[in-house]
Amino acid sequence: MDEHNNHDTVSAAAQKTEKQQQLKKTQKTFQHRIQQREKDQQQLRAAVEFHKTAVEDSERIFNELIRSSIERSHSEVIRLIRDQEKAALSQAEGRLERLKQEINDLRRTDAELEQLSYTQSHIQFLQLRDKLEDIYKEELKKISDGVTFTSDVPQTRNDFLQLLLELHLVERI
Q1: Residue 20 CA to chain centroid, in angstroms?
Q2: CB within 8 A of 139, min separation 6: which ones?
């Protein structure tokens, strides 16, 4: 099989080895993406906890405002903050769910790639090349179309207090 009418040929075993090396590189890419998505998931969970803490801090601040006889403003701002909290938490939970699904999809694809790497038949392995290229192209498109998490929600206590002041001023106007 290595020679064919004086043409240069590559043995099936050599081509399989080359394709297996490409497969291992692809698997490393998937594993890196899984790790990155898990990191994103942890960061998003931390953001959810931050928002929960921010709500507790805001309630304490507003109790001080009540003592200053600003009850009407207090109830309006609490409602606005609750609405924002619900929206932010809903967005974060939706993003967490999408990340969870993406991680599951990546793990499933990684498992398929792992299974393909152990194919014993050289010819069968080479026939799977098209499937590997399709998987690679699909994942590359997902990477390029990736969504990043951004938020206009205050990230620090001072940012939150500034937003509160702006809301209070808007209420008075």
Answers
A1: 28
A2: 29, 30, 33, 106, 109
Render pLDDT for 10-33 as a digit per residue (tens, 0 to 9): 688 888 899 999 999 999 998 999
Question: DSSP label at 44?
Answer: H
Query: Whats the size of the chain, residue-wise?
Result: 173
Q: How far apart are CA 110 and CA 104, in angstroms?
A: 10
Q: Could you give the CA distance from residue 82 to residue 162 in angstroms, rounded to a whole number? A: 17
Computed from CA positions of residues 138, 140, 145, 148, in that sequence, does the dihedral angle turn out positive or negative? positive
Q: Which residues face 3 on adjacent strands?
A: 8
Domain ranges for the chain? 10-166
Provide the whole-model pTM.
Answer: 0.37
Cα–Cα nearest to 116, from 126, 102, 101, 103: 126
| Rounded distance between C-alpha atoms, residue 11 and residue 153, angstroms | 59
